[in-house]
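Researcher: Let's try something more involved. This one mixes different molecule types, so please make sure each is placed in the same coordinate frame as the others.
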Amino acid sequence: MTDRPLHPETLALHAGWRADPSTGSVAVPIHQTTSYQFRDTEHASALFALQELGNIYTRIMNPTTDVLEKRVAALDGGVAALGVASGQAASAMALQTIAKAGDNVVSSTALYGGTWNLFANTLRDQGIEVRFVDPADPRSFERATDARTRAYYAETLPNPKLEVFPIAEVAAIGRALGIPLVMDNTAAPLLCRPLDHGAAVVVYSATKYLGGHGTSIGGLIVDGGSFDWAAAADRQPALNSPDPSYHGAIWTQAVQALGPIAYILRARTVLLRDLGAAISPFNAFQILQGIETLPLRMSRHCENAARVADWLARQGQVTRVIHPSQQKGDVRARADRYLAGGFGGLVGFELAGGVDAGRKFIDGLELLYHVANIGDARSLAIHPASTTHSQLDAEAQTATGVSPGYVRLSIGLEHIDDIIADLDRALSAAA
Ligand code: PLP
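Model: All components are placed in one shared frame. Result:
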């Protein structure tokens, strides 16, 4: 199209696709097929041997999903991406691609509750130890590292605390040790490009802002292509020693000719192949539809959320507002440094009346939906202490920043006056 780099607004509409060559279809077709006819046996062998990249079976790749992968990779400045069934699948596979039983990962404590459970329980049961450290102190990642540490993990704008992660600082520590930083950028697409700050891999729950319509679960793993896996051979054995699950391939060598995609190709051809958490082509299509308007939506989410934060800060029952605009010092400086174009659509606040007030507030809402989701075009609310975080013990609740009277809002695209009127009504109900 042009040699000049395209802007995000343009990439969101065009990256990875230009009219179907056989039909002229402008919209990306939904390739609702399980399998693909090989031209001949030579073609089939080349595909299986990864001498040529192409469609084999929809559990591993699909042409509709391929457009989604290319589009998100382009928006994030990555070299390739992998679409998967959910954000949870993306987080798990991003780590399982390089960590096996006996290995460990160092993660920020500031995590989505589902990720916390995955890390603290399920991965641990599978033999991958996740060591939790304070994200405010980048050096804590280094202190928790040992010879079996394979990755660092954090969220860009973790809810409920909404304190932006020191991406460049931790990425630099990791790169010096041969450890990639995996960033969950679910809450800040477009606002932050973690790869630009040194992260090696980005994961998304596409269920949230990327889709935006709240209709489809999906996830993505984006490979930045700038992490030197081969230079860290002892540190990253999964990509640097013969892989028995792929006829002894040494990934960093086997796919050199295809570009710096050893990591994402192993994620696809080993983890996705074996675990099978594939995204359906229909969901990939739905998420692509969402991405077309992502730049417009993110800016309205940011604008409305900032106005809600400002309004909440003036309400007597509210003891604390959690939003980057209310932060000070280093924490605020990180929000200003890493988020461009706004502070995202999430706002938290604490009610003086604790659990009881939190529940009454939620029950008093009429416009905002009471759901366990974020990033929908509609405004959403939840009281984590009685829902998403209720399975976590007290220590985990404190580490993740959930207090009894904490309410999380995901501010949508409605008229700001209507959002505030509903919040006002619910605050009266909680009084
Ligand atoms: N990461 C974050 C920050 C999330 O908020 C969520 C879901 O709420 C996930 C990951 C998991 O995504 P999914 O629900 O698509 O599996």
